[in-house]
Design goal:
Bound molecules: pyridine-2,4-dicarboxylic acid, zinc ion
Structural class: alpha+beta
CATH superfamily of the largest domain: q2cbj1_9rhob like domain
Order of helices and strands: HHHEEEHEHEEHEEEEEEEE
């Protein structure tokens, strides 16, 4: 794990609360600067092991305003309609407008589909090049929950594109909308992640946990996440598979390929627990598109 020194223009209080180092505060500020909403950032911080209170304190010190924790209960009702490719006649490939995307694997429970050829190698390179200068400069994970403990669940670096931000992002989003038959407007901005050697993303669910106090606020922006598409932008020499431990499935990263999975309720019964295995040699770049129930704005 490594940290960058905070930039000179970052105003910090003289005495930070215990455990909140200038490096962690700089990381929070970098994430905020990438355009993440405070509630989404709070959720992401909890995902990587921050305690609720330290995360709220850090966000508040970084000048971000969060709603109070007094929020209504969240439904676990299953979604009636989900993103889903048209595989009715078991096609080898799907026309996404400007490209043929191949279907490599389809599994029912968990619902997982692996695709090839969603992006050209040049498009993968363009996404990496555009994302590179905007990757958060510190790794996400030097966190504490209730005090001292460092959490290493997610040792990658990341950034978000705005929806439609570049020509390649626009093209990709249109392909995804066709491939998964889901409105482009229901997609979050594309997230690009970079894993160096040894980095990993420990198994987790992508939906927002109903019992978390911040979830009702997050859901106001487009409802629950109902599906994920992880797109591989390069190939690590060893390791880095996307794993589904409950299905004993490992998807090996191949440039331009993607793994799709959907979850009709925010519940482990969907069997969508998944992780990014440690990169053993080389590096791994992915772009993730999360799809919401409704328009995400
Ligand atoms: O990098 C991956 O394979 C991976 C694993 C688990 C990505 C995500 N989750 C994600 O972006 O949600
Ligand atoms: Zn995930």
């Amino acid at each position: 794990m490594s940290h960058q020194a905070p930039t000179d223009n970052f105003p910090l209080p003289q005495d930070l609360p215990p455990g909140l180092t200038p490096e962690l505060m700089q990381w929070v500020r970098d994430q905020a600067a990438s355009g993440l909403a405070p509630t989404v950032l709070l959720h992401a911080m909890r995902d990587v092991g921050w305690g609720e209170e330290p995360a709220r304190q850090a966000l508040s010190l970084a000048g971000m305003t969060l709603p109070s924790t007094a929020t209504p209960a969240v439904s676990r009702q299953p979604a009636q309609h989900l993103p889903e490719p048209d595989l009715e006649h078991q096609p080898c490939s799907i026309d996404v407008g400007d490209r043929q995307v191949q279907v490599l694997v389809s599994m029912d429970h968990p619902r997982v589909v692996v695709f090839a050829n969603l992006l050209s190698h040049e498009e993968c390179e363009a996404l990496i090049a555009d994302a590179h200068p905007r990757m958060a400069r510190s790794l996400t994970v030097a966190t504490q929950s209730g005090g001292e403990e460092v959490n290493d669940d997610r040792t990658s670096q990341g950034m978000f594109f705005q929806r439609g931000e570049t020509e390649v992002v626009r093209r990709l989003e249109e392909r995804i909308a066709r491939l998964l038959r889901w409105p482009l407007e229901n997609g979050e901005g594309l997230q690009v992640l970079h894993y160096g050697p040894g980095a990993e993303y420990k198994p987790h669910h992508d939906y927002f946990a109903p019992h978390e106090p911040g979830t009702p606020t997050i859901l106001r922006r487009g409802g629950q996440r109902v599906a994920t598409l992880v797109i591989y932008l390069n190939e690590p020499a060893l390791g880095g598979a996307t794993t589904f431990p409950e299905a004993q499935l490992q998807v090996v990263p191949r440039r331009g390929n993607a793994v799709f999975f959907s979850y009709d309720r925010p519940d482990p019964s969907t069997r969508t627990l998944h992780g990014g295995a440690p990169v053993r040699e080389g590096e791994k770049w992915i772009a993730t598109k999360w799809l919401r129930e409704r328009e995400f704005r």
